Fold these 2 entries.
Entry 1:
Amino acid sequence: MTLLLAYASVAAALSSGLLALLGEHRAAWTGPALQVAKLVRIPVPLRPKPAVGHHRRLPHAWRRMVFALLTASGVSALGAGLLQLHADAAVSGQLPFGLPWLHWHVRLDTLSAFFLVVLGLGVIAAGVYGPGYTRQFAGQYSFGALGLFTGSFVAGMEGVLIADDAYLFVIAWEAMTVSSYFLVGYQHEHASHRRAAFLYLLMGEVGAIAIILAFGILAAASHSFAFDAWRDAHVTPAWGTAAFLLALAGFGMKAGLVPLHAWLPEAHPAAPAHVSGLMSGVMLKIAVYGLLRFAFDLLGDVQWYWGAIVLGLGTGSAALGILYAVVQSDLKRLLAYSSIENMGIVFMGLGLCMVFIGKGHVQLGLIGLVAALYHVLNHSLFKNLLFLAAGSVVHQTHRHDLEHMGGLIKRMPVTAGLFLAGSVAIAGLPPLNGFVSEWLTFQAALQAASVIDNGILRSMVSVAAAILAFTAAVAAACFVKLYGVAFLGQPRERRSAHAHEVSHSGMLWAPAMLAGLCLLLGVLPTWVLDAMRPITRQLLGETLTSASARGWLWLTPGGVSTASYSAPLVLLAMALAWWLLRRLERRGPAADVRRAPAWDCGFGGLSPRMQYTAAAFAQPVRRIFAPVWETVETSTPETAAANPLQVTALSYRLEIGDRSWRWLYLPLTRVVEDLARQTARIQTGQVRIYIAYSFMTLIVLLGVVS
Amino acid sequence: MPVPAYSVYEQAILFIAALVVFTSFLMLGQKRLSGMIHLFAAQGALLAATTALAAYALPYPHLYVSALIIVTLKVILIPAMLHRLIVRLDMHRDAEPLYLYGYVMMAAAALVMFSYYVVEPIEHLSTLATRNAMAVSLAVVLLGMLLMITRRQVVTHVIGFMAIENGLFFAAVASTQGMPMVVELGIAFDVLVAAVIFGVFFFHIRSSIDSLDVDRLNRLSEVEP
Amino acid sequence: MDWLLALIQAVLFTLLAPLFSGWLKWVKCLLQNRRPPPPWQPYRDLRKLFGKRPVVADTASWLFPVTPYVVFCAAALSGAIVPFFAVDLPTAAIADMIVLVGFFALGRFFLALAGMDVGTAFGGMGSSREMTIASLAEPAMLMAIFTLALTASTTNISVAIDYLLDTGLALRPSFLFALGGLLLVAVAETGRIPIDNPATHLELTMIHEAMILEYSGRHLALIEWAGQIRLMLYGVLIANIFLPWGLAREFTPEALGIGAAAIAAKLGALAVALALAETSVAKMRLFRVQEFLGFAYLLSLLGMLSHIILEV
């Protein structure tokens, strides 16, 4: 039953893609080949920009149908996930596709069910948001390509989740990577988007190679491609570690862990908003799923030093991700960097879990695992919400840069309210959901202190927790900056002054649904933890018994006396205090409010240009942590011709670069280029030499065969 | 073992041990030479307090004598001498720039952890409850070296050197109930002589290269760079 | 009964917070050879402000008038959680130390947003500085909390205090360092000298005042009151964690009386110490704050290290 729902979900996603394609080429069935051929050439800027109106407009009903199918895919994925979470046993099956001797194995267990829920929620939001949002592309870009690749992207992610053999897994993984490549390059007339797409594809494929190599180790040990055989395979610790490190590199690259993150801040902002939401909100989680599946389920026998490595990587990603985010002034880029931070937090939880399990404290490991999974769910909700709301903002103002925005809370009140909810959630503030998962991560770190006998590891864990606190605080600063500059204050430019609320209700309903879920997950954490029990039982054989030891009102991960948090009571108390205050005030003498101009120090004429800009807001942080970035800051004064001391204008330029480019990527490119040049020497261009190559090959082959 | 399980004497020793490390950290973060000398004196005073405590609690009366020696030498005599020196060289208001302050502090914290890691196997063999103090004294030694590496002033180098000696002495007092009197007197005398010789050398270095920056000592090399 | 006592404690905490800051101001004035206002002056100020009609800038959005309520509710809620004169109250289980940090962050987040809402230069400046300082102070604070939590193996304040009362007096170097770190963080987070000056309105040096420059009337009253609660909260935390003796452990009138007297004495002494420190230290440049808070972090880190090396 659940498996059928999952199939239905994949089918719906694929058919939504096909429908979009068919819709666009109703008259001239030139077929998808042309589309693909055109898009494949994206990195090569050869073709002149198509004239406006080149792409035939699609009837609105058709567009709706495409997204309705996508939503249906999300709903059935959600349904399959929810049903399977409560099912007793995993269901598996075989599909008559694939290699003749290896049919596709599919399997749905609680772990994939959980991620199907995450995916389903994200896809539903994208499906609801899409029809209104994609109208702006009409006529200019191909809707068929967008629909097709969105559909295959979603289908690919679903395929990864239900795959039960290496072959299907890799195919689905590649479908996901390649179709998202086309989505990143969707607005292909921008050179930066083409570059971003190429970088993304390149790094995605390198990661895929690492994953395939990791699979290879297990396949060699078990002489099979089916995951079932891998679970029983025996791997020596050394090979196991090698496989784990390869998988970590591959999945970590997809998850955007520092220093393998370079593609993420380029690719996520380039894609259309609902796709950015899917990529940040769901695709990064698929990478987490891959690592969980590989390390816990397939490989098994988790070593504690794997956990230490994961914890270190996670901590570094969290801190550096948010430090890079806080200095960005591009709305979507900032959100993309903050995804790196949040994936870092997820990996911190995973790392703590692995450390505990490696050291034999399964109950404590569960806290880490639950914290990581909870943060996966939370991040998928609020990051999707933020990307969608940011998409609305960009849609209405046609601006990416924060420095051009301002005062949008008055022009777009609903979107602004939803964005505020997302900001509070992502900044990790009670009583929303971001806080709960960060709190759980803290609790996991705290438990480390009392049980781990290795003093070095113990102090590392404590330092990691302090860095997590730093991350949370900088995240708060980052989102105060984002929200304050974009939505508050006065508009800095004409277009934001004349922006208005989005007209399509789907563009409000999708983020509103996500915001509601954020509140729900923040207030009822014990329910979520209870729902996660089957996952922990399946992965680790135990459930977190102490989490709701005092009933559903109290979240007590490490036992009643260790720590407790009661989100419902917090919300209740705050509501009560609020109500009391308002009541008391209404009786008071000063019930109403007088409006007056803002205080301008008596000089008069406050202009929007006097406000703090995004760059100015982050300046103290930029100065204190200066070594983190590669900053080029120049200010050139223009002086009057008559008097060289009189400055007439001052131009200021600020460029903030990523250090990993210089330290990792550029040297790597140089090495690759050198190697390529060395290899190119065998291409002499002389026919006789090539014949000699063939000759040699023949000789060698004959020798081997005999 | 939780703290309340220790005896009061051991608690006090551990407490002072923590303070000794703290003074080492403060030295690393101290820009001014006079402040550095005060910190050195404070470290000496903590050392003397440890020794006196050991003398009282164990009881080893001869340790009172070594406490007295420490007080006269490391709290009064050497700091006073160094202070007079820098006043005469007119350096008592100088502030030394701190290079890579944050990294140095991180390295220092890492060194403390490292010394703990190194000492841990010994701890399991040892039966003394104050064995943890061993880790602390090793840390003080390493931090003294770090101080010498990161600074250029000769005076700071001398203080770093003396801090290393403090660390060794602390280990001796805290873990073996003090050294034989003869050895102790010998060390004390050595330190005093070293301080005097350093004092003389300052003037010589200063007169020959017109600075007390150790990096400038490269000039004395006979090999042309 | 327990809940009733907890409610009384929470209300008392909220009501007594202005007195603490009044007392602090009184001591400080005396130390600086000025004629002090009476310690209950803050109550008069609050009453006056509550009676005035607030003026809101016409560029402000709905966020601006809502913020004081959020800030006050968060502060009052944190006051309800901390053991004031009795431990083992049921409210203590609602939230632990980390949630407390979360409440502070919530109030600060909205206050910083409100600072940017009006669209003047001062508000943005204050918000930017406040968030920067917070991001430096929060890890130091958490590290100090961690040191305490490592000893008592809990983050629940009430349970931790219980543990300390049970084990009795012990010389813990880690506590000394954590105390130092927490004191510095408290000074930074409550906007006292040398980080910020609560009495200044000098444009370029103010931090907290710059954010709330546009507030008036009952909005200002709520924010000021929340600030006073926060100040006392840090005082109570430091006093009750590092010197827990005297706290009422059973709910008899004598025990509660002793508890109340003990916390009054502790807070009074703490205020004197703070006033002394504020009188003898000058305000720092903004970019020396990182050194100050870096030192706080170092202290907390040393506390953690000395716990691991020396106390286990």
Entry 2:
Amino acid sequence: MALHRILTGALAGTILSSGALMAQDYPERSITMVVPFAAGGPTDTVARLVAEKMSTDLGQQVIVENVGGAGGTLGAGQVATAEADGYTVLLHHIGMATAATLYRNLAYDTLAAFDYVGLVTEVPMTLVGRSDLEPADLASLVTYVKENADTLTMANAGIGAASHLCGMLFQQALNVSLVTVPYQGTGPAMTDLLGGQVDLMCDQTTNTSEQIRGGTIKGYGVTTPARLEIFPDMPTVAEAGLAGMEVSIWHGIYAPKGTPAEAVERLSASLQTVLADPTLAASLAELGTAPSPATDGTPAALQAKLESEIARWEPVIADAGVYAD
Amino acid sequence: MDLISNLGLGFATAGSPTNLLFCLIGVILGTLIGVLPGIGATATIAMLLPITFQLEPVSSLIMLAGIYYGAQYGGSTTAILINMPGESSSAVTAIDGYQLARKGKAGTALAVAALGSFFAGSVATLLVAILAPLLTIVALKFGAAEYFSLMLLGLVAAIALAHGSILKALAMTVLGLLLGVVGTDIYTGTPRFTFGITAYADGLNFVALAVGVFGIAEILRNLEGEQDRTVLTTKLGSLWPSRADLKAMIAPMLRGTLLGSALGILPGGGAILASFASYTVEKRISKTPEEFGKGSIAGVAGPESANNAGAQTSFIPLLTLGIPANPVMALMVGAMIIQGVVPGPNVAAEQPALFWGIIASMWIGNLMLIVLNLPLIGLWVKLLTVPYHVLFPIIMAFCSIGVYSVNSNVYDLYAVAGFGLMGYVLMKLRCEPAPLLLGFVLGPLLEENLRRAMILGRGDPTTFVTRPISATLLGLTVIVLIVMLLPQVSKKRAEVFSEAE
């Protein structure tokens, strides 16, 4: 049995030393950051901003790869089965949590297939309307929508999109049912809102802030607990008494399950450095959002967020009876 | 005048040595990726995005824009030389351009395409500068009902794309519509005809379909009969258009520019129609419609102009509203945001140097493209003298890389193979791929807008005739149908084609 012990010892030694090597040398080559949406979209923009900063910190390029399709589940599925060596990560938003309910035949198990790196940012959403919609503020909008529920239309960027989820919350909060008009992405939905073809939409500040500033659409309220710096006059939904409508598009970075702990730690440390970088904060501020606090750039914070969000959205989606498969 | 001082600012910005350099890099890259079959502007711009972070916002956007319209120039090259369209617009160019090439007039076809593109690009750029804000208002009048009627008009007119039997053209259009249905239904989220393959959840890839039914099918046909190919390589013909050729291209070029500019401003996919619409119009009003499909100069000049004009005016919704009209524009939005310029209705007022600089650079870029492309024609045509058994594996390799690079999806490669086989069979059956492609491109838009219009109209179908723009378009559709179905017209049509066969 001596041989056995020597072998085991040697093996353990190799593993240990490779582990040590890993911690020291990781990353030795470029890292692929999969974004499960098309290039140019809001999530892609967040990813590219973060990837650029992380590249500097890690000393290796973090390359964004767009694997769009099926509401982000294709890209997530690809990372779930990617080699868990720390060189493939996923940057995904709230859809990671909602897809767990929206898609009843996911190719991966959302809670079991990933290791967590950390939270990146929470983008607020805004409730907006076409520029000539009658109500002037959120309080009168609430009354107006209740009175005209059978004539108003609400746009969204497709089944399961953030704008769809936020629209559901809005209608549930007001206990009304509006005609919902799905589009293929935010761009066409915004076009029709600008053209006055639809009445209402709830979308990320990334897409709406410039239009609100330009007066081409009306901004009624924000879905965050506090008002936004860029729109100090815009009330929060809670101020108007819309219960349970608080929602933000949180983004997190994931790695395939089984990624070496050293790699995850290094990525997480890098993320925390980046989150504290004022230049990132400045870029994100342009989009009406802010980096998550560096203390949330941790595996534990992301895991807690994902678990609570899955639990939160399950009943909402089930009540609405909308599935994306 | 405001316009003059604005344009002055624009040319001062775009004319700086750095910006000129990046404009040049952009158009060269664009031409190259346009020439490589399958590799599209979207994939290239996505790959180059990180590089642009280091540049000034204006320089990076000028370069990206250059790649986009440069690719429109380059895309026609492969369509003409090897019947391999990389984008929906060059699919139309392939119809007559490739026939010209087979007649030994590849140089003429390439020159006509380049000249048409330059003219259209210049005129459309001027339109963007003068009319952008006004055109935006018109574009926003287009709701779901209007788009539906526009797409219907496009589809009905598509029958003119074919030069064989109307029945076969109709069948091809319908087959295209059916293929376009594959993917997730956006209103219910239900996957349709995906056979459980999630990679097809967002539909079949256009590039895969186009490369398959046009390019791969053509390769199969060439391999089957090497004689055709020898004819092609021995008869290179003149490189330059004759005086008669130039005369034949002027009117189609003007009409194409007008049509393309108008359709390009519609953010909901109007630009897709530009080259198809131009081809239809040219064939309708041509004195020699029998030439179409057999190497007509007008069939290349019109669509190429329309396509390039549309490419320029599709910047209008982006620049004036911050709304991307197509995936390339969406990437430009991403590039702008990363540069700290959030696109929206305020860009022109807040960043005049950027706004007018991009517009001025488009004209400069178009000039560079024509200077760059005309001398290259001789080189491209020489490509045809490469022995086919050397050329076709290279084409296949580039196609595969290109198609894969669009979505990094192997199923797209299976689709290329499948559609290649299908294209070959269709060719044997004398069914033409162009109406199929148009059906495929327009089908999803047609369905999406039909259903959206019905949702917005609360199930009332009169919405299509009570909205004036929609009603006008539907009226035009009816007229086109009547003209096509009038017995004497179709009789004349049959005569024309039996003579030509």
